[in-house]
Amino acid sequence: MSESIQEEREPGPSPEPSPITDKEFTGYQRLVYREAGIWLSPVKRALLVGRISRRLRELGGLSYGAYLRKAEEDAAERVRLLDAICTHETHFFREPKHFDFLERVVLPQWRERGDTGSGEGRRVRVWSAGCSSGEEPFTLAMVLRHHLPQREGWDIQVLATDLSTRVLERARQALWPLEKSEEIPTHYLRAYMLKGTGSQEGKMKAGPELRELVRFQRVNLNDGQGVVGRFDLIFCRNVLIYFDAASKERAVDRLLNHLSPNGLLFLGHSESLSGLGWRVRTVMPTVYAPRG
């Protein structure tokens, strides 16, 4: 009797998981809040499902409950979960009033005085907290390098941090679609950005003079570990809107602990430090300096 030969078939797509239950969503709320200080309100339920459903399929069709247990037990998977739920919309020279204030007021004062007022001379330290795909820290690098030339002895370093490992990898490449060039003033674009050719056509890359100023690091503002020293400028814009009152206060407290006595903290246009006025004074809307 001859043996039948069965045709091999490609495995079909993983089945869609059952809808997330109230108990499972509550579990994700608690995990994300504990790890990142981000509160997923009930209206974020669809966002959570949309962001992690692909990962469930990659893992062979895990249920939401099974994936929650995996994330609870596996530190690397927790990082992937947090990567998935973070939103990363950003632009060069976003909220231009901040950069106008730097260029018209802050940097001319530093240059005229010959130092930042921090006691570190011409050593400038800047922190871009929640740097996303790199537009903000590289904007800062352009503005600082232009107004504080290396030939005059200005030593500039920009620390760019984010919770998401995925966007940090993109930011390290310092590579963006060419249409992003429309966000950059012409004199900065010509001085500091390279236009791609050949296989890189349609892209632009920060030049080496900028790339050497910026270093990247994963930092979770909910625990504040890994950041050392004080900074003359801290940009933490459109990050605190994802925190509830308690986690926001903890994060701001950590930011201020790293701010130079003469430094400035920049927040997003929809954020404020109401309730924390005892630690800061308002320089202009969404720009703060330490009291004392």
UniProtKB/TrEMBL annotation:
InterPro entries: Bact_Chemotaxis_MeTrfase, Chemotaxis_MeTrfase_CheR, CheR_C, CheR_MeTrfase, CheR_N, CheR_N_sf, SAM-dependent_MTases_sf. It is an enzyme of class 2 (transferase). PROSITE patterns: CHER. CDD domains: AdoMet_MTases. Pfam families: CheR, CheR_N. It catalyses: L-glutamyl-[protein] + S-adenosyl-L-methionine = [protein]-L-glutamate 5-O-methyl ester + S-adenosyl-L-homocysteine. Coiled coil: none annotated. Residues 19-292 form the CheR-type methyltransferase domain. Residues 1-22 are annotated as: Disordered. Residues 1-11 have a biased composition (Basic and acidic residues). Its EC number is 2.1.1.80. This is protein-glutamate O-methyltransferase. It comes from Archangium minus. PANTHER family: CHEMOTAXIS PROTEIN METHYLTRANSFERASE. Keywords: Methyltransferase, S-adenosyl-L-methionine, Transferase.
